[in-house]
Amino acid sequence: MRQQVLVHADYFLSVGIDLPAHEVNYEQSIVAPLLQLLISAYHLNPSDTYLAAIQERLPWLLAFAGPQPHARLRHIPIRHWDGYWFGALHLWGDVFPHYWSVLNAAVLERLPKRIDCPNAKAMADAILKANLVNFADDGSATCAFVYPGCVDGNPAHIADPVANDQDWALVYVLQYGDWNI
Q: Which domain of life is it from (predicted)?
């Protein structure tokens, strides 16, 4: 298995910046797993090649988010919600936070110490904490808070009542989170 991880990582290094298409041509959930793979390869074989590849690709991941002041936005990668197909409210729009934003937190938590990213821990904590807003005190949840105030003339800025994959955020909070949240 160790060898397969290294072979897989080496393959992605060989394609350089030509990332494979996904649901869209370029999104955070393509870059985060790539970095997770390279981090795993580095832990198995701590070479400067993997270290340089992680350092080069980390800005690709961080470009999806920024240091916005609002808790729903701070370091949260932009994700589009196709609520027409997946949501009960049939609203399209950007969702903040989207549960897959925790992929960024996992990358930031696992970065090798030699990677230059001084705010990695603070960014990861902000992402994990932000995802908890999708859970109510009674344990109910939403998998998508549609952020725009209006979508196609319909009121938005609302939690879609569909609750499903948001539990992935809890998995990552339990794995990496600060228990003093």
A: Bacteria
